[in-house]
User: Fold these one by one.
Assistant:
Number 1:
Amino acid sequence: MNKLEMTGLTAAPGQTWGGIRLVPLLRDKPVDGLRLRHEVYGPGYGAVETGPRTSYLSYVPHGFVADWSGDGSRSATYGTQLGDGCPVTIPVRRHHRLAKRRSVKGVSEPRLRFLPLHLALDGYLALHFNGPSVVWDEWSQQAVRRGLSPRAEAAWAGWQVRGLAEALRLFEIHPDQCGVLVYAADSLAAAFVVPHPEDYRALHPSLIEDLYGELVHQYAFFGAAVPAFEARIRDSRHLTTLADLRAAALAQERSWTAAHTTLFANRLLDPSYLYERVYRMESFVLWRFLPSFSRGEAEQHIGEVITDHKGRVAYLKTFRLSEAQIRRGHLLNRLHDHDWHLGRTAQSLGTTEADLVRRIRDAGFSSLLKHGAERVARS
């Protein structure tokens, strides 16, 4: 698997509020056999045990439960609790694993609890987390013993993104809506897809609690208002009946949908991603994915997705990386590709070893290098 397959999802005309545009994603029919429900943990941070002596710490206000039992009545989603601002007290809730099968009295149920977006963010933070595989002279003892631990990245909660709370509260939800694309200043910020319209109605407010990248926060704050969708029928000479007018309006909607897929959301759907399987749920599979980290692509996303047996998307949630995060991912990939040898990595990047050392320090990885690594690199 290397591409998001959005078969069965259609983009409807978007709705705008200031610099925020929400584009509904409609399904012809719900995905059979899978439902999502919501678990509210309340304001605070979550500490997740991801492995031996390894933890993931972040703001974790809620979790999702994927249910493939086929019993829709038991899959009803819970409501979302929204606050007016940052909580005063910050309790820490502990979780065992980012995705964990539910069980009752030791018997596994057809339900999987996972932490939305945090699966994807942990995958990015764990990128080449162990550090140098070969102990070259330039790397410190900390790099050898601890790798990139601790590793941190910045993100903003949805209620900190200007205009998003108002847009989510005011915008109409379509009867067949199973997802949404969130834009800030007409730049794609996030994608969210669920299997069933009832799931989306219950989970729509949870977008205000999600995490968004630095670039999204800046675009929403500094960007101007974006134009609303308008259907303009320029040649009306042949419109003689109400049916003709309806057909012309539908043609305009189809034209907008095609333009949206090829222009707005093209960078989300076009790249080849690196997928890691997280959990198999009979005919469904939960994955998380990373982009190529190519320096020539300004828009890159990480995310998580549940696909059916045909590879079609049943659930999707994405996080847009900032330019600095893309640079860090690109740098780590190139170091890894050349066994963390500074000379060979610098040659592959078309630069000098001293300049590569500067890039490593600018990326926030200075603790990996020995003091005076520039001199070591030149010797």
Number 2:
Amino acid sequence: MKKHLAATLTALAAVVSLSACESPIYGAFTDDNPPAGSTAPTQEPQQNQQKPANGAQGISQDGDQEQKVLKVQQVPGLTPIVTSATGRTVYRFDNDSANPSKSTCLAECLKLWEPVLAGSGVVVEGGGIDERLLSTIDRPEGQQVTLKGWPLYYFKSDLELGELAGQGLRGLWFAVNPEGGKAKSTKPTETTTPVRKDVQTLTVNVVDGFMPFVTNEAGRTIYRFDNDSNNPARTSCTGECTKKWEPVLAGKKGIKVLSSKINKASVGTIDRPEGKQVTLNGWPLYYFHKDKKLGQTAGYGVGNLWFAIAPDGKKAARCL
């Protein structure tokens, strides 16, 4: 009898969870209550932290309890970066803190990212790093090396010099330079010139797994960027950013709103080099380069900064 009752309660819970996506009140999610599908890293109590990806506690793939050797190296396409003695790229994580030094890469994060551990100490080979910028912080696996306060990591897929599979991952992970900053690309900046249509269209669509969000007439998902500002309306996506995020530009003959769910008075434009960028409730609008038709939402949650935009200008919520 008890087993039958437990199974019934479990089934009821599943029905309640599924019905959440069917709720017509799609304004229940706010910027202060992010969607359930948000990609923000889960921070769990330290006692729940997992071992590094290589399965060794306090011992990295790059060495054992001997001194940690760091060096500065040049790889194609980037300004000088910090590596291990064997050439493994060293990274920093934007969700961490440098002042005070704090790591937020715990639990699931450690399946991909391995803390750089100090072993019996840290030394610099060949110069190029001011040793006064080096320190350590405590974590369950051992003493994690920091550079100018930033905790350091290896990416599990990088094993030798020149491998940079973690560079730019989720817009949060970057090879670290000798001063503790982000290594920069040395490739010429190429910007994507958006196509100027006769008329830019805005409408509202519903896709499985999401509350209603704004698209163009062809169904292409439209996004907003948390690093922008809506009061005043201002874009911060320029240069390298526009390779992946295409500003939604007003057409030669203006903007046409095709859905009554969008308040026409909330639609405006701002100036940028490519033309007049469309805004919704002050938020500049973008397309993601991988989305081409209705149902494609590859840009949702990228870097925990990019989200499909709801008809009222808020982040469109993702449902379970």
Number 3:
Amino acid sequence: MPSVQLKLDMKRESKSYIDSLYAVLTAAGLFEGPKYRLSGLTGMAFKFTVHERLLPLSVSAYGQWINEHKPGMDNLGIYTVFDCGRTRHPTFRHYQQDAIEWVKDSLDKGAGVIYWIPEFGVIDGYDDEDRVFFVKDGWSDEPHVVLYDNLGLNFTEFWYCQAVGGKVDIARELMILESLRLAIYDWDTPYKTLPNTDIASGKLAYDFLIQALRQGDYDEGGAVYILDSYCYSREEILSYLQEARGLWPEIDEAIRLYKQLNELLPLIRNAIIPNGDSRHVDRCQLDALIGHIAEAKQLEDQAVREFRQISDRCPDPRRSIIPRWGIHTPK
């Protein structure tokens, strides 16, 4: 019976989707460079979402995943296919059985598959005799084992698989420009999971974070996870923009603003203290922490204004050209 085991370097550092995507693309020879560059080009570094009670799901609940991930893949010029949805749907088993075959096909071709565990991880092997997939979560070298018949099943109601294919070359300047437009969209969109309004995105996410900390009724582990992810992503943004220095004058100003923001990150991290085997926000430092977050919000808002100036004077055919059938898809 056939089996495959790829060698993928999956390590949790950034958002779990980027960690997974980086492992898959670098192993397949579809991306070269540091992880922060991938996080920036896909726009993922700029995504910031916060649940009103700071639940840990905040970090990965940044919208409908296909809608959030596909623009980044398009910006990389990489072909991709998805299967995802809710496991309660009566058609789930049909899609699951189909996914088993194309996941194996991707592995046979040497490309891992991004998979919602939760959070995101990578399917890097299978064994037909035992009818199992092997999944890496990035935290441990030991793989998870998922039965074929359990593919997609987890304690959430969602399932997700994504495979990658070929690549076309896109000019670096165009990719950076599009990533800034993705950043603007995220900043300006207050809710990505409508009709629910308990998770805020972009600029409003700062307000949700400040309000929850001020009220004091929030999930302790979630608060730490949100702040950890926030700090790491803002470091990614600065590193990413520094590589684009000189492309436009506004980029240099945005770099200056993100440098100021990054100077606040040690102060934010210092407000997280050990608590036995876990960590929590130090209530004695709440006022100072809220002040640092509010200052960071103002700096990021100014940086996004710089992105807008770049976007406004550069052609944007993706958003300005209406297909001949209008704004609707053809029937």
Number 4:
Amino acid sequence: MRITRSVAGRRLRAGYVATTGLTVTALLLTGCGGSSDSDKGADADGNITLTVADFGQFGYKEAGLFEKYHELNPKITVKEDTTAEEKNYYPKLLQQLNSGSGLADVQGIEVGRIKEIVDTKADSFADLSKAIGVDEWVSWKAKQATAPDGAVIGAGTDIGPMSLCYNRELFEKAGLPTDRAEVAKLTEGGWEDFLALGEQYKKKAPEGTYFMDSASAMFNAVVSSSPEQYYDASGKPIYEKSASVEKGWKLAAEAASKKLTQGLAQFEDQWQAALRKSTVATVVCPAWMAGQISTYAGDANKGKWDITSAPGNTSANWGGSFLAVPKSGKNVAEATKLVKWLTAPEQQAAVFKAIGVFPSNQGAYDLPDVKNATLPYFNDAPIGQIYADGAKSIPEAVLGPKDGVIKDSISTQINNMEQRGTSPDDAWDAAVRTIDKAIG
């Protein structure tokens, strides 16, 4: 499992997000003008079809944004080409970039890939720095897509500020507080407090249940709450000496040894069944994870779950993507206008309302559909407030070109500690061998 949001996290909406509702007027206010003379893809009547290639679920269809854009710009039709799995999408994107053909007018890029694209393919994309209003984004989001020469090759779509989802019913049966403020206070010291809470849970835990689903998820949250992760600023891999990796590994090993985790691979069938059967009491919860829980736990568990802030005084980011415009496209100017519109505050708020992915554009945070958002499935948790507060405390982290490989390899070995009883030393050695072989 990678720390960047898996496609499974994109596929499912976060249940019904209760908000005040965006008005049609708000959407109309940010419409764009007609086609540009610089675009070469128009037909004889000036009509242009823009193609958007992405993966999983970006939420534009669910929010009706492509249809709305056509209403605002009658000569522009937007068609979406979606690949179900990002792991299949990305190799195809690289192949298209290398060959210089087959690219869409707009391409989605996952956060776990953006560093590699910035380092190796930045020249293939239009500079959006003058088009999208970089200052509107959370600062670290914009920097992730910024090349050394200052070019911004991707406009931020969403982010994954961290929270903690917990099963209120299981907490009550284990004699733990169920109020989200009280739960937050019990873990305010950080992930060490979280494990201590797990030990309290274990003392009176309902038979057949576990405190957490996956220690690898906790590891990812620990690492991503630190500015120092897998690479240093020069691009050198430092995962073997990284303080956050060491801390996350130690906590994961402790959770495995104390049997606080069910040791499930997230998003797989057994994990889905555990949610349905209520055998896990907590899930590390980036904003998009609520959709996973509500979908797989099902209607029978509505109201049994809640959401509170992540342990500690700093949040973490897990997931998020970008929209980029290939320079080779026939409709670069119009594609840039579309990207600007799709990532404006009103449209990001509409996507949040539709599928629950949280905006990267800070201008959306004060809009009613974000600020006042609650999630009925999760006991009316005030997710707009929780996620916005989390977004403000996310540190600016250094990304590396092979972050995904490193995270996947470490997560696999954490699962081995949980499921097979592999010793921490042997598991770590196996992770290092795999990583070093993969990154050279």
